[in-house]
Amino acid sequence: MTDDQTSAADAGGSAPQGVGRTALGVALARAAESARPDRLFDDPYASVFLRAAVTAENGPRPPRGERTEAWSAMAAHLVLRTAYFDDYLRDAVGPDGGCVQVVLLAAGLDARAFRLDWPDGVRLFELDLPEMVAFKERVLAEADAHPRVERHVLTADLREDWATPLRAAGFDPEQPTAWLVEGLLIYLEADDAAALLDRIGALSAPGSRLALVRDGALRRTREMARRDPAMAPATRLWRGGLGRNQAQWLRGHGWLVHETDERQLRERYGADRVTGGHGFLLAERPSPARSAARPRRAAARLLVLDPDGSVFLQLHHDAEVGPHWVLPGGGLEPGEGPLAGAVRETVEETGWTDVVPGPELWRWEHDYHRADVGLVRQHEVIYLASAPRRDPIGDLTASFAADGILTCRWFTPKELAEVTEVLWPPTLVALLEDLRRDGPPTEPIDLGYLPNHWPGMG
Ligand SMILES: C[S@@+](CC[C@H](N)C(=O)[O-])C[C@H]1O[C@@H](n2cnc3c(N)ncnc32)[C@H](O)[C@@H]1O
Fold first, then answer.
1. How many whole angstroms separate alpha carbon 25 and alpha carbon 44?
2. Does residue 19 carry a pLDDT above 90?
3. H-type helices in 256-337, by residue range?
4. What is the number of helices (H) and of strands (E) in the chain?
């Protein structure tokens, strides 16, 4: 036992009530999975915790686990989540991950410190409410369980300042950390969830990682659970979590965000394991040195307007920016001028050979994440152009795939003002208003460097 947890053990260690009881639900799903011949993981401690909860004097019973549709769907999620986060942590502390600290926030009855193999030198911190920590440590001590990693257990209410006790326990914010927030955010109000994620960001050295369940991924399962009286002890504690687009929020707070969807999960864990709305977020804290040394890339684009003033845009997605709408165009080839490059790229992306280019309007710089190179800073020149309103011409599947274009469409000024994804440039709505009112500028306007995410976005 470390000093960090002495007071927790003094608290008695009876089976957790209230929100702590939700950890018994997770243990129930993990115990059932561990008994399957085709199990995705083996957590022998899950059944130990369950037995201890049942026999605890005056303790509550673990969830009964009725075979309701809602429980089955939730249990399938808990199992997939456990397997996925096991893999996440293995990667994060592995040779390519480089994280030397692991923090399990709201660790509950997570037994990863005891059941996973950890490289030498890793330090693992677990935080949860005092009652939960007391129960867990008592049961682990009775089972004579020994962690396979340097383990520190802390009691903390994660709605309050938990950074101070974490640092006092030896956590080093200068070292890269793998953070796990598993099964917690839903129990927090939006402000508390945002404050928690802010604290994580402030304690994250370059190279740190963070894993979360993707919001919206569980919508159907959660709706079913809300309608199921047997799930009420858990669902009545739900507070909603961040309540905003988590991925965009994280991107706006300095993280690169990779989203894992159902197709990828099916490939990894089998189609029968991925049935109802699953998805995860893996975020990564880029190193400032890498950001400052971003390779520069020269690009040019056409602001193609139809006779009614609608603008043609393409949807892209990357880890740094997330979904964003972009004018046709792209990177210049060696020796190519910006206007020639913008026209060539536009023809490749639209099949339109009759676009009429006009004067240069704007120049700007911005950042994004290219799958082939990583973080880049792009310098772009934008020209006015006109064309009739129509769809792209011909089979552009290969060109779309090569350029990472997900879809394309025309936007009226009103539709553009309502777009929730990032626009390139981010000030495009205002720039178009100026253009409509004043006409093209006599000299191109240099917009300078523009961040993708503005304060208050997402
Ligand atoms: C559903 S369990 C998940 C436990 C664990 N992460 C896992 O997946 O096995 C939720 C956990 O959140 C903890 N929790 C909820 N609110 C908390 C708070 N404000 N501070 C600390 N822990 C909290 C509960 O005690 C419980 O252990």
1. 15
2. no
3. 262-269, 288-292
4. 17, 16
* Packed helices 130-142 and 44-55: angle between N→C axes, nearest 10 degrees: 110
Question: 106 CB less than 6 Å from ligand 1?
Answer: yes
Alpha carbon of 67 to ligand 1 centroid (Å): 24
Range with top average pLDDT, 60-69, 85-94, 403-412, 443-452? 85-94
Residue 50 has pLDDT above 60, yes or no: yes
Measured in angstroms, how far is the CA atom of residue 87 from the centroid of ligand 1?
20
Most confident of 40-44, 393-397, 446-450: 40-44
pLDDT, tens digit (0-9, with 9 covering 90-100), for 298-342: 999 999 999 999 999 999 999 999 999 999 999 999 999 999 999
Q: What is the CATH number of domain 3-287?
A: 3.40.50.150
End-to-end CA distance of the chain: 42
Ligand 1 midpoint to CA 184 (Å): 5
| CATH, domain range 294-449 | 3.90.79.10
**pTM value > 0.70:** yes
Ligand 1 nearest atom to the CA of residue 234, by list position? 1
> 263 Cβ partners below 8 Å, 6+ apart?
none
Q: Which of 19, 182, 191, 280 to mutate to test the pocket of ligand 1 (most atoms within 8 A of CB)?
A: 19
**183 CB near ligand 1 (under 6 Å):** yes
**To which residue do tokens 């995705």 refer?**
40
Give 57's DSSP letter. T
Pick from 176, 20, 182: nearest CA to 86? 182
Residue 450 has pLDDT above 50, yes or no: yes
The better pLDDT of the pair 156, 19 is held by 156
Mean pLDDT, rounded, of the chain: 90
For residue 217, the CA-to-ligand 1 centroid distance in Å is 20
- Output the CA angle 22-230-61, nearest 5 degrees: 50
For a pLDDT cut of 90, what percent of the chain falls above it?
73
366, 424 contact by CB (below 8 A)? yes
Query: Closest residue (by CA) to atom 12 of ligand 1?
Result: 106
- Could you tell me the residue ranges of all domains in the chain? 3-287, 294-449
Hey, what's the torsion of the CAs at 14, 20, 24, 26, to 10 degrees? -160
